[in-house]
Design brief:
9 helices, single chain, 8-stranded mixed beta sheet
């Protein structure tokens, strides 16, 4: 089947134009979510509480857009769109949350920070989102023991930062949200997010035959696979072979080595950034076989008790 929407791939586009368009689309999406049944929850009450918040960056307080809670399904899946930490792609947000919701799952969209914020700021937003839902589970009507997070590309990297950096909560913190655990109970990761891409020019010795224990140790600590904790949550992972297949397979092997439940899918067909791969959005290509991933992921979450 061939149509005009089979091969959109933002990696092949002019990013100067792409960044502006995606940022505008994201702002429009967030502004319209309330009309589509979502409720918006600020992760911090005001900007002064947000770690390293910079008003001059022109980004709002990180938030969660939550679908109405599904009767009988008390877990929640937080969706993190990708965009190279330069923007967030709407086709990897609202359509994905709707697909999970239609499959009988609760879903939310994370509006996290991106450049010029550091990647660690986005990871902090992901951890805060887990804590927020867990802290407010009673009033939201969800199960605090079934909270998941997942995403695409940079959003998947946010997920990895959450998986590799969670804690049990800080009991001496004045903020009740910070006193609860940031560990997700399950997660999903899509294309381009299984390994951290280091700045080779800054991190490697000048001569290719030289080796630095300090540099290697630092890179290992920042690598999402090498630093994967023994108590990482169960993970559903999928990508196409347009991205390096080694990455998802290496992540699956890391999970197997640690004895942690996981499911891994490597599809043939579809570019990076394909989201649902169903062709229903101008930024989403149509690859019917790869499009099965959302059904598989939804079934997996149900199997995990969501």
């Amino acid at each position: 089947m061939t149509n005009d929407n089979q091969n959109p791939d933002y990696l092949d586009q002019d990013w100067t134009v792409l960044i502006q368009k995606r940022r505008e689309k994201w702002a429009d999406m967030m502004a319209n979510l309330g009309q589509n049944g979502f409720s918006i929850h600020l992760l911090w009450e005001n900007a002064a509480q947000v770690p390293d918040y910079q008003k001059d960056y022109g980004q709002p307080i990180p938030s969660l857009a939550v679908w109405p809670i599904q009767p009988g399904r008390k877990g929640t899946v937080i969706v993190c769109a990708g965009g190279g930490f330069m923007f967030k792609s709407p086709n990897e947000a609202k359509p994905v949350a709707e697909a999970f919701h239609q499959a009988g799952l609760n879903a939310a969209i994370l509006d996290y920070r991106y450049s010029p914020y550091s990647r660690s700021a986005a990871g902090s937003d992901g951890q805060r989102a887990i804590r927020y839902l867990r802290c407010h589970a009673g009033e939201l009507g969800i199960d605090p023991d079934h909270i998941a997070i997942g995403g695409f590309s940079a959003g998947g990297m946010v997920t990895s930062m959450v998986i590799n950096g969670f804690d049990a909560g800080r009991q001496d913190n004045d903020d009740p949200v910070e006193r609860v655990s940031s560990r997700p109970d399950a997660a999903f990761q899509m294309y381009g997010s299984f390994r951290r891409m280091p700045d080779l020019s800054a991190s490697l010795p000048k001569h290719p035959l030289q080796f630095s224990f300090d540099d290697q140790n630092r890179q290992a600590r920042e690598d999402y696979i090498l630093s994967l904790p023994m108590d990482a949550p169960p993970l559903f992972m999928a990508q196409t072979d347009a991205d390096d297949p080694h990455h998802v397979l290496q992540m699956a092997l890391a999970y197997a080595d640690r004895g942690i439940p996981h499911e891994c899918h490597l599809f043939h067909g579809g570019p990076h950034g394909g989201a649902l791969f169903d062709g229903r959005d101008e930024d989403t290509p149509e690859f019917p076989h790869t499009a099965h991933w959302i059904t598989l992921a939804s079934e997996w979450f149900v199997m995990m008790g969501f």
